[in-house]
Design goal:
A: 95 residues, mainly alpha, 4 helices, 78% helix, B: 463 residues, alpha/beta, 3 domains, 7-stranded parallel sheet, 19 helices, 7 strands
């Protein structure tokens, strides 16, 4: 990676972190558990990296096996995270 | 990478941001989660359509297996066990980031024979380090929360020294790796060291501090995804990782503040051991409590016009949420103003108590957070405490020698009358005496919360 590419990624990191702090600071305590499990699902975005890693041919490839393991784990994280968050938020009702 | 995949990742990033924004309001939260999942779906779809047709089957098999496991866990898990589940998922996310970074590194250096530059190399090392710590740290947190290993702080001499040595070795290994990226041994060794660090940093932390630990590990799983984004030069990983990292840090701060502990203090561990040997009980005056029976309690409930219920984790353990809803509905029918006071650490993770009460069908607008309700206790007729202890201990305000001194607590003792539903005179999670139980206006209703409250509801119906 060139220094230029790295600096751009660093900009993205800093701006996204700042945005994250601003967004989450305003979330009321009532919703902190769904927020955590929902953001947990988002952190499973590694799944796209895992898919790319699985794209290697041949099962003798260590990188492919690592990628497939990562894909199963990340999918559990993503699918399970969104499903349980939805299950929780469905229960939040006002009478 | 082509333009379609880049645009898809951009759309996914935007949807994640909008989704989190919508998660901030109870009315829009569920749609927010859906918006964010659509973003994830777009990112996955755009990536899958790019892969070689021959790899597609492998990828789909992995996705199907992962989805099945994820869905089963998500639909089977009890709401009391959400903290364990979040810890477990966190761990999986961390391990996935580690594996992706290592896979990419292996592919380039070993299978393609391409030299990696130092920025990528350092990013790989960071992904492995953070991902590894997140994985084993989360697994230990999961085991502690589920009771498979002791929730007590496990401390031994030289613990901090060992952690320091491990951290120094992790840094040295990375430095060695920088000198020779063609040798994969360093990165594998780094993975092993980081997995050990993860275990060692969480075992000295007691069960009462788990809300902090889960929040922190949540943040780490985001940071691991972020570092992997630097490895793969992938913007969507960096954006999402940063959002999650920030969210975890904020929740960690909130939890530390709610327990009046610094993050350092929590991480160094051992809390709960020191307080147990603090000699608090020996020199303090013996607490004399006044007991109350179900019938008498029912008469008190019948005579009030305002009620604040203070639920604690003990309520969830006794599965008393539903009977409490019955009680609150019955009181409301009698014209009583019923509200619930929620301490930030009432459950086992941030906001956990709200989920438990929502599951019992209690309207969320009745759940009032500590700062908002704390001034109202003084003009409340009755406070009913179910399974909460440390968060209502006035010693936090009055006794500088108490281990919990300075922790923000609910001002329950200011109410006209306080009734405490409690199994026995056992101590709270922090293992300390509660002066509240000896107060003049405090009555103890002993017995299993679910059974006593069911009886109470029965009595109250007849009045």
């Amino acid at each position: 990676m060139t220094i230029d590419a790295f600096i751009i990624l660093l900009y993205i990191l800093i701006l996204a972190s700042y945005l994250g702090f601003e967004l989450i600071n305003k979330i009321p305590p009532t919703l902190h558990t769904p927020l955590m499990s929902g953001s947990n699902a988002i952190s499973g975005i590694t799944i796209v990296g895992a898919i790319i890693a699985c794209n290697e041919l041949g099962y003798v490839s260590v990188s492919k096996w690592l990628g497939m393991a990562a894909l199963v784990l990340a999918t559990i994280n993503v699918v399970g995270g969104y499903a349980v968050t939805d299950r929780m938020l469905k229960m939040f009702k006002k009478k | 990478m082509n333009i379609i995949i880049q645009i898809s990742y951009l759309i996914a990033s935007i949807l994640f941001i909008i989704g989190i924004k919508m998660l901030g309001r109870t009315k829009t939260a569920r749609q927010g989660n859906a918006v964010s999942s659509v973003g994830m779906f777009i990112a996955i779809l755009a990536t899958v359509v790019q892969v070689e047709a021959i790899s597609l089957v492998d990828i789909l098999i992995c996705i199907v297996i992962g989805s099945a496991i994820g869905l089963v866990i998500a639909f089977k898990v009890q709401m009391t066990k959400i903290p364990e589940m979040v810890a477990l998922f966190n761990g999986f996310g961390g391990l996935a980031s580690l594996a992706v970074a290592l896979s990419d590194f292996w592919l380039n250096t070993q299978e393609k024979g391409i030299a990696v530059d130092s920025i990528t190399g350092i990013s790989v090392a960071l992904s492995i380090l953070i991902g590894g710590i997140t994985f084993t740290g989360s697994i230990i947190a999961f085991l502690k929360l589920s009771g498979n290993i002791s929730g007590r702080a496990i401390v031994f001499t030289g613990q901090h020294l060992i952690n320091l040595i491990l951290l120094i070795s992790a840094i040295s290994i990375t430095v060695f790796a920088l000198t020779d990226f063609s040798n994969p041994t360093y990165m594998v060794l780094l993975a092993v060291v980081s997995l050990i660090i993860g275990v060692l940093v969480v075992i000295p932390i007691g069960g009462a501090d788990m809300p902090v630990v889960i929040s922190l590990l949540n943040s780490y799983s985001g940071m691991a995804a972020c570092a992997t984004g630097f490895v793969l030069n992938n913007n969507v990983l960096i954006v999402s990782g940063a959002l999650v990292g920030a969210s975890g840090i904020i929740l960690t701060q909130i939890m530390c503040k709610a327990m009046n502990r610094s993050l350092m203090n929590v991480l160094l561990g051992g809390f709960g051991q020191t307080s147990a040997t603090g000699g608090e009980a020996a020199d303090g005056p013996q607490i004399v409590v006044k007991e109350v029976g179900v019938e008498e309690a029912a008469q008190i409930f019948d005579s009030i016009s305002s009620l604040i219920i203070v639920p604690g984790y003990g309520m969830a353990v006794a599965q008393a949420q539903h009977t409490i809803r019955e009680l609150s509905e019955l009181c409301e029918k009698k014209g009583v103003n019923v509200r619930f006071a929620i301490h930030p650490v009432a459950g086992r993770m941030p906001g956990h108590m709200n989920v438990l009460l929502a599951e019992a069908n209690i309207s969320y607008d009745k759940l009032i957070e500590m700062d908002e309700i704390n001034d109202d206790f003084a003009n409340t007729d009755l406070v009913f405490i179910v399974g909460a202890n440390d968060v209502v201990n006035p010693a936090a305000k009055t006794n500088p020698n108490s281990p919990i001194f300075g922790m923000p607590v609910l001002n329950v003792e200011k109410a006209q009358t306080v009734i405490v539903s409690k199994r026995s005179m056992g101590k709270g999670y922090a293992g300390i005496e509660n002066e509240l139980f000896g107060a003049d206006n405090c009555l103890m209703l002993f017995g299993d919360a679910k059974q006593t409250i069911t009886k109470l509801v029965g009595e109250l119906k007849e009045l």
